[in-house]
């Protein structure tokens, strides 16, 4: 007998609730991913945290993975859904390789495939709770795009997910330009990640930066950013404040 | 050698009085009349070779592919009716990816061979299906090292260290028996197969 009787309104278009297993909320989540195009390809940065609500439970989650020869996928949101997406893409790339015809799926094709998957899941009210960043280089052409959990997709010279949209993209809009060198690109990404580290409560100070060029993909070992907490404005914060806090 | 099974060869669900199923034997004849396919098991892997019969001068080289991969670690070479072979490979691919999806590891070659053999055998059990007219040499590499299996139209599958099907299978088998396969690497194996 169903004690927790959840009543849908009479004119509801959703199917019977008892047999649905729709995603309602995420459990283990990753925070922002930031990426930009530079001279030789794409640079992407993401920290290694997996939060369980407000607890930072997992601190070595790799949220960026290579896809085939030409693409790099970074994800924020539900980590288990990201793993599921990786499984789909693994099968996709395998079938592509088995043709053995000299052709391979490039970033544009993978991005399109992901958009279809995300949008169709959303239409069934069972979304994959992720915001994805897909970047890559094929035949000299750089490509950087993003797909959200509701299927919104676009490509741009620099993209970010989650808080990155609010904190990192303004910086990128000001300071990004064509043909950034690798060092300048990394510096710019680190600047964005530092702001996110200061201001996003689900960010941790352990990040990786991934680079994808025509030659292939490399992902840096985890490292941490230098932070500065001695700003004079934050010294003695209670001075002049009425009360004990 | 060609025995006429009058009346007992009309359907794959009929046995002859001497215990043979003629339709399956006829299917094997289709394989015996096709281009030769060889497979050998070397120390560190499998080498497969296919005799490329050029059906027409206008055909582009590189089409009519008869060695196809099934998964990252295994592949199949097909002899006989090419369309039937395509179906078997598609089934093998599907079995391999579903095993990987469920168990998280690449399908062991023995398991794959069993599944392919079961599928081929399935088509010899119903009167509304015809047996596959192709023999398949399946090679793969798993935890137990390289393995080579051959699946015949009857659904039998055996493990071999050297196998051949098709027109020149007798000659090929004689050649393979002369080779010392346990000491050969794949690189050397490729040369030997090409010679055959």
Describe the overall structure.
Chain B: InterPro entries: Ntn_hydrolases_N, Proteasome_alpha, Proteasome_alpha-type, Proteasome_asu_N, Proteasome_sua/b. Chain B: Belongs to the peptidase T1A family. Chain B: One of its GO terms (biological process) is ubiquitin-dependent protein catabolic process. The complex is a heterodimer of chains A (245) and B (196). Chain A has 245 residues and is an alpha+beta fold. Chain A has one domain: Glutamine Phosphoribosylpyrophosphate, subunit 1, domain 1 (4-Layer Sandwich), CATH 3.60.20.10. In chain A, 28% of the residues lie in helices and 27% in strands. Chain A has 4 helices and 13 strands. The model of chain A has no long low-confidence stretch (mean pLDDT 90). Chain B has helices spanning 22-32, 82-103, 109-122, 169-178, 186-195; strands at 37-42, 45-50, 67-71, 74-80, 134-142, 145-151, 157-160, 162-165. In chain B, 34% of the residues lie in helices and 24% in strands. Chain B is built from 5 helices and 8 strands; from the N terminus they run H-E-E-E-E-H-H-E-E-E-E-H-H. In chain B, the strands form 2 sheets. Chain B has a 5-stranded antiparallel β-sheet. In chain B, strands 2-1-8 form a 3-stranded antiparallel β-sheet, with helices on one face. Chain B has one domain: Glutamine Phosphoribosylpyrophosphate, subunit 1, domain 1 (4-Layer Sandwich), CATH 3.60.20.10. With 196 residues, chain B is α+β, with helices and mostly antiparallel strands. Classes of the chains: A alpha+beta (245), B alpha+beta (196).
Question: Brief overview, please?
Answer:
Chain A is α+β, with helices and mostly antiparallel strands and 245 residues long.
Q: What is the share of helical residues of chain A? A: 25-40%
The CATH topology of chain A corresponds to: Glutamine Phosphoribosylpyrophosphate, subunit 1, domain 1
- Biggest interface pair, residues each? A-B, 7 and 9 residues
What is the CATH class name of chain A? Alpha Beta
In whole angstroms, the N-to-C terminal distance of chain B is 27 Å
Q: What is the oligomer described by this structure?
A: heterodimer
- The coarse silhouette of chain A is globular
